[in-house]
Design brief:
Blueprint lengths: L8 E9 L8 E11 L8 E11 L9 E2 L2 E2 L11 E5 L2 E5 L12 E2 L22 E11 L2 E12 L9 E12 L6 E3 L9 E2 L4 E9 L4 E10 L2 E10 L10 E5 L3 E3 L9 E2 L6 E5 L4 E7 L5 E7 L10 E5 L15 E6 L10 E8 L6 E7 L1
């Protein structure tokens, strides 16, 4: 394949926020990465979330205000109307298309029946100051490999976002679908495998079964612009960062030195998805376009590119009953969920997060 495939939208509709009706008083969560588990688990999908709030939503103010003040960096457990704040959680959903939303899901719980933290804090990590935020994951060789970003919260917010944080780096955790217990992968005793200034692998995994490789996509902010990079690794070694190679030239040429890596495209907040779309006959990347509210798609003939310019798939128009108490409309986490696609990939399903709504919001897009 050469060149890129034209991308167009013939119809789109808003299917609303997801997972609002649940048995655990879950009142908001972000992230929403989906990871198919394969036939040995009846084609179920693991959904992986970031910060998750349990309790009730405040009826007459922003979700992020407590006692008249922005929540700040601190753990929200036991504050205001919230019972718990959990860094990351997951649920299982049966095989289905997205035409009626995701149904019959089941959250993963601990021995007490409460929502389970998949990658808990450990060591000197403190819930007021540290977060383990979800990225994507992959099921391969009978195990699940999850990717995460570790962040340190800032007491003073230096920018326009409602909370301040700095990225420490990213890493991987490995676990079994039998008990959903994960251990972090370490290198020289450190679970941070890619540092703050390096691409944060992997915000998307793509299993390319024809060549036995997994392609991994990582993003990083460089001089005010968020860039995406790609690496590859044999599927059986996806949890061994020393086996990763990074795209160093469009040829393609791959290098084991991450400093040789080149960006493949830009302008996503951090998250994205990459999949092969049979209807288009090419690879499709989906991401939020910065914080503009647009969710865009790009196409490429190969997992590494060359990638097209972005085409708008959906534009989010928030409807705030209560104006946010911060100066920015925060819309992020745009991505596709290929396992929900219908009609050979002609209908695809996207999610995004709007910070005040704070539920994964589902969009159906019918491609031209």
């Amino acid at each position: 394949m050469t060149g890129t495939t034209a991308l167009g939208v013939s119809a789109a509709r808003d299917l609303g926020p997801m997972f609002v009706e649940n048995a655990h008083c879950m009142v908001g969560q972000d992230g929403a990465f989906s990871i198919p588990l394969g036939p040995e688990f009846d084609e179920q999908t693991l959904w992986f979330f970031g910060d998750t709030l349990v309790g009730t939503r405040p009826p007459d103010q922003s979700l992020w205000m407590i006692d008249g003040q922005l929540v700040g960096p601190w753990d929200m457990s036991g504050r205001g109307t919230f019972e718990r704040m959990i860094n990351n959680t997951g649920l299982l959903a049966p095989k289905q298309t997205g035409e009626r939303g995701v149904r019959d899901f089941r959250y993963l719980t601990d021995a007490r029946g409460q929502l389970k933290t998949l990658i808990p804090l450990e060591g000197d990590e403190h819930p007021d100051w540290h977060r383990i935020w979800c990225q994507h994951g992959i099921y391969t060789g009978g195990r699940v490999v999850l990717s995460f970003i570790k962040v340190k919260m800032l007491e003073t917010n230096p920018g326009p976002l409602p909370i301040g944080f700095e990225i420490v780096g990213s890493g991987l955790a490995v676990g079994s679908p039998k008990d959903w217990t994960f251990r972090r992968v370490t290198r020289e005793g450190d679970c941070i495998l890619w540092r703050a200034e390096q691409p944060h692998f992997a915000t998307a995994f793509l299993h390319h079964r024809s060549d036995g490789h997994v392609y991994v996509y990582g993003t990083v902010n460089q001089r005010g612009r968020q860039n995406c990079y790609v690496g590859c690794v044999e599927a059986e070694h996806v949890a061994r960062p020393e086996r990763y190679k990074y795209l160093a030239s469009p040829a393609p040429r791959w290098s084991q030195q991450i400093d040789d890596a080149i960006p493949i495209f830009s302008h996503m907040p951090s998250e994205l998805s990459v999949s092969y779309n049979p209807h288009l006959g090419c690879y499709l990347a989906v991401h939020s376009l910065d914080l503009s509210g647009k969710i865009v798609g790009r196409t490429a003939p190969a997992p590494w590119g060359p990638w097209s310019e972005p085409t708008t798939l959906w534009t989010v128009t928030p409807d705030h009953r209560i104006p946010p108490p911060y100066p920015l409309t925060l819309i992020y986490a745009g991505k596709e969920h290929p396992e929900l696609a219908a009609d050979n990939g002609r209908k695809i399903y996207l999610t995004y997060i709007e910070f005040e709504e704070y539920f994964p919001h589902l969009i159906e897009v019918e491609l031209a």
